[in-house]
From TrEMBL:
This is Response regulator transcription factor. Transmembrane segments: none annotated. Residues 161-226 form the HTH luxR-type domain. The modification 4-aspartylphosphate is found at D74. SMART domains: HTH_LUXR (SM00421), REC (SM00448). Keywords: DNA-binding, Phosphoprotein, Transcription, Transcription regulation. SUPFAM superfamilies: C-terminal effector domain of the bipartite response regulators, CheY-like. Residues 24-139 form the Response regulatory domain.
């Protein structure tokens, strides 16, 4: 069987991708010109666009058939919107991580996306580099939010002093802010003028105190605790 035929087999495609190192992506947007431009960008960056969808329901079907590594979804699509499609994709293709690519930066949209389990939220106003970084981050098991989005969520979180965030020290709140923006431990240290070891200690205490272990958890902590209202 030829390699291109193997890629069309849902039972074989994930293993083939893993063995070849190919990064397989599906793109869903109801604007054909935008999809074509996005496909060209991704292919130039070394990604394989295995399918395109014009609505959320089609994206779910293609994810189930193709088992891609990443699904890039527009937020506002016909039939099924991006967050709802992401939730369905997680059910039918658990290994596929969803990224929303959208023009909406308002908090309710972001919160709905996070609650749906998306792994990345990228604004269309950002550069192509941000989208590439988002794909690479979520493929490594991480979580990506466009910088402006991260600040909006964390500032909302930090601004609600009546909540359980009061258990955090001022320094821990600073660390939380920086970590949720996607800063590395080294970058946190540089921003706060402390050593990397000290920054790592603050981060460890913060994670331990909140009982979470990654950036996605930090953001979702605010949601679970009612710190951010959709």
């Amino acid at each position: 069987m030829a390699p291109e035929e193997l890629r069309d087999r849902p039972d074989i495609a994930p293993r083939l991708a893993a063995s070849t190192g190919t990064r397989r992506v599906i793109v869903a947007d109801d604007h054909a010109i935008f999809r074509e431009g996005l496909k060209g960008l991704l292919e130039r960056e070394g990604f394989e666009v295995v399918a395109e969808a014009s609505d959320g329901r089609e994206a779910v079907r293609l994810a189930q058939e193709c088992r891609p590594d990443v699904a890039i979804l527009d937020l506002a699509m016909p039939v099924l919107d991006g967050p709802d499609a992401a939730e369905e994709i997680a059910r039918v293709s658990p290994q596929t991580r969803s990224i929303l690519l959208t023009m909406y930066s308002e908090e309710p949209y972001i919160i709905k996306a996070l609650q749906a389990g998306v792994r990345g939220y990228v604004l269309k106003t950002q550069s192509a580099t941000n989208l590439v970084n988002a794909i690479q981050e979520v493929m490594q098991g991480g979580f990506y939010l466009s910088p402006g989005v991260s600040r909006a969520i964390v500032q909302s979180y930090l601004g609600r002093s009546e909540t359980s965030s009061g258990q955090l020290t001022a320094r821990e709140r600073q660390v939380l802010h920086l970590v949720a923006e996607g800063k590395t431990t080294k970058e946190v240290a540089q921003a706060l003028g402390i050593s990397v070891k000290t920054a790592d200690s603050h981060r460890t205490r913060l994670m331990t105190k909140l009982g979470i272990h990654d950036t996605a958890g930090l953001v979702r902590y605010a949601i679970r605790s009612g710190l951010i209202q959709a």
